[in-house]
Amino acid sequence: MSRKGPLTDQWVTCPGCGKRGYSSKRAARATRRNVDHTHTMNIYSCKVEPRYYHVGHIPHDVRTGKVTRGQWLANIAARDARLRGEAS
Whole-model pTM above 0.85? Predict the structure, then answer.
């Protein structure tokens, strides 16, 4: 039997990206505690609508130690900048 509380039920469809969004990091953590039994989920703020938090899988390269989370995020930021046509 899983624990369900009011925080895990407080999600909306994020208007920026369409994913399940939580209005607080606390609510996202509560959801992660209820669904992530393998510890492979990550809480992150939405890039499009920063007032929302999402719960998603940690990338395989980070989980296996090939890169740190910081390096992975920097690579993603650089890729996004290139796609937008900004100089890095």
Answer: no
* Whether residues 16 and 50 fall in one domain: yes
Residues 5 and 45 both lie in one domain: yes
Contact indicator for 54, 20 with CB cutoff of 8 Å? yes
Share of the chain above pLDDT 90, in %: 30
**What SS3 class is residue 19?**
coil
Count the Cβ atoms, other than its own, within 10 Å of residue 6: 8
The b-or-e profile of 45-83 (16+ CB within 10 A means b, else e) is ebeeeeebbbbeebbeebeeeeeeeeeeeeeeeeeeeee
Residue 17: how many other CB atoms lie within 10 Å: 14
In this model, does residue 72 exceed pLDDT 50? yes
